[in-house]
């Protein structure tokens, strides 16, 4: 799809591949998302969290060449409240699993 942008959900991207994938909103409360229950929001259960993590993995693996992960200090809710729950735990876990490649490591 040269010259086009496709906006899709994580679920509908399953089985497809794209040259570049951009994943915005990688903030706790959004990815992984809190779950609405009786008019309130609650953290996901372990089972819900595992499913969200699987779906996030599907989204990550749709990129053939380039992956852009977008996060920030927080977000405004639909009601206008500022939430600063930090970057997504999924994103932090990915970063922690990356091999160290800093100048502090020296080869002998």
From TrEMBL:
Transmembrane segments: none annotated. Residues 4-71 form the UvrD-like helicase C-terminal domain. It holds the Pfam family UvrD_C. InterPro entries: DNA_helicase_UvrD-like_C, DNA_helicase_UvrD/REP, P-loop_NTPase. One of its GO terms (molecular function) is hydrolase activity. One of its GO terms (biological process) is recombinational repair. It comes from the Bacteria. Keywords: ATP-binding, Helicase, Hydrolase, Nucleotide-binding. This is UvrD-like helicase C-terminal domain-containing protein. It comes from Streptomyces sviceus (strain ATCC 29083 / DSM 924 / JCM 4929 / NBRC 13980 / NCIMB 11184 / NRRL 5439 / UC 5370).
């Amino acid at each position: 799809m040269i010259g086009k942008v496709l906006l899709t959900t994580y679920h509908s991207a399953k089985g497809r591949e794209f040259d570049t994938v951009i994943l915005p909103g990688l903030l706790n409360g959004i990815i992984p998302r809190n779950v609405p229950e009786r008019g309130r929001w609650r953290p996901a259960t372990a089972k819900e969290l595992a499913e969200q993590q699987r779906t996030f993995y599907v989204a990550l693996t749709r990129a053939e060449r380039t992956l852009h992960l977008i996060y920030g200090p927080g977000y405004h809710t639909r009601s206008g409240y500022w939430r600063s729950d930090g970057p997504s735990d999924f994103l932090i876990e990915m970063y922690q699993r990356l091999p160290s490649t800093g100048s502090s490591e020296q080869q002998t």
